[in-house]
Amino acid sequence: MTVTQAANGDAALALHRAGRVVEAAAAYRALLVERPGDADLLGLLGVASEQMGDLAAAERLLRQGLAESHFAPVAYRNLNNLLGLLIESGREGEARDVASQIRLPDWPAGRQPDTVERDTVLSLLIGLKDLDQTEVAAEVARQFRGLLASDIDYALIAGELMYQAGQHEEASALLAADFGADEAQPNLHILRASLAHDRQDRETCLKSSAGFAAAMPTLLAEARPSQEFVLAVFNKAPIAINSFSDPYLLHYSGNFPSQLAQALADRFRFISIFPDSPTAMTAMREMPRPALGLNNIVNAEQLMANDTFRIVSEVEDNLGVKVINHPKLAVGATRQKNSERFANHPEIIFPRISRYFSSRDLRGLLIDDIEGRYTYPLILRTVFQQMGKGTWLINDRKELNETLDLLNENQFYIIEYISSRHENGLSRSIRAAFVDGHPIIIRADYSDNWNVRARYESVRQAFYRDHPDILAYANHIVMEPEKELGKTALEKLHKVAELMPLEIFGMDFDITEDGKLLIFEANATMNLLSTSPEGFHYPKEVEDRLVGYLCDYFCRTATGR
């Protein structure tokens, strides 16, 4: 390339950067007459063509430029622009094919990327990641460890790619640096915690998880014109992050408030708050003031651990607005208290329950005490787990002893087992949602197993594929609960609403053959909206009705009407 050619190329690029795209394109074409295979010019003319709306020419030029690219900075730019064009055109499959087949030249040793090159590299890495080309992206990222190691944006993207590609030692080394003011980046703490978990470094995992909660104690949803007011959801900060996740998923990690934050995003502007984060109070002062709060730290066992109840209550009370399912209400909804609450109501059965601590040294006395209070079969359940996890049906002393071996000195419940199998030989579980004292049947399921699980599990789906008539009848119960369960049974639900301290909660139950209400579970940790896949949904009309009740309750409570 002559000095004159270089000068003309710089002039054309200056026109392009000044927004004079048509003139720049003409200059590129003139230069290409002299240098027809110049990958740099082909790529730049491709970008100009795209900006002028000629997408076909842009794609042709970018593909040609990429094929001619032997100098890494130009190859990276041409690939990045081609992938961007294909993705924006809705042709992700073609973009994925290009990315998977390309063989990029190595970055020149010792060449420090300038600002434009650095931005191109980062954009390319993100594009490759979004196209599920993790290994290709990780290989590209690895070339810049010595050149961009102190760049927090590079470190976060490259660290995530290396983590996903299973290159955990390299990712840990990259993220071990001190990034100064950028140490407050939430994703940095998430990555460090995930890597620490994988190498079984619990101390670092806990420290980095706490660092995430301190760095991002609040998460405010985007504003939309249709939103009526800000609704605060108080979520528990993650104690030990065990895999890399989007911060949103760490804020909204479970229960029905997490579902509502997505389902009602057009109606309300949600803000998630970690009240157990030391920076929560300060962060709340910088956020728009909520009109209403919804407490999602409702596991009574967790609330009563350490100083959680006081800390969470103090932050929620500081909000100065009504908080639904306040901790002082949630602590009254343990399994033991629920058992006591319904004990004197003969038409309602809540199985007897006792809490134990698994001690190997006192194993014999422990089993003797259990057998003195309960008969087999009985249910053993861990204290903190939900959604049917950590639950066993124990048929004899041998099974009890074997199960206690699994608990490793943990606390557990022993629960009276009351069979509710119906004439068809199947067990049934019905779920009701309660909103400000109003019950609504939202689910019904049958199973050939005593522990009736949700429809998102493959075993449930297989059962219903084999028995579509049972699936249809279960949904019919949801649509016509009074007809199928009886008016008297539904009246008992209103009694439950009176007795339970929570304002919004779910209850799993069944109606026994003699018409009694058999409660399996009642708490505010349940999902109230469907999690079922296509083909296994509960009736949408019922879920829409529930959402209507919730919205109406939120609006009435927030406005005082």
Rg over CA atoms: 30 Å
How much helical structure, as a percent, in the residues? 40-55%
The secondary-structure class comes to: alpha/beta
| Beta-strand share of residues | 5-15%
Q: What profile does the largest beta sheet have?
A: 5 strands, mixed
Residue runs with pLDDT of under 50 for 5 or more positions:
1-7
Q: Compute the separation of the termini in Å.
A: 77 Å
Which outline best applies? elongated
Can you characterise this structure?
The protein starts with a helix and ends with a helix. It is an alpha/beta fold and 561 residues long. The longest helix is centred in the C-terminal third of the chain and has 20 residues, at 540-559. It folds into four domains: 69-184, Serine Threonine Protein Phosphatase 5, Tetratricopeptide repeat, CATH 1.25.40; 213-325, no CATH class; 352-416, 2-Layer Sandwich (Dna Ligase, domain 1); 427-558, D-amino Acid Aminotransferase, Chain A, domain 1, CATH 3.30.470. It is built from 27 helices and 14 strands. The strands form three sheets. A five-stranded mixed β-sheet has the order 1-3-2-4-5. Strands 6-14-13-11-12 form a five-stranded mixed β-sheet.
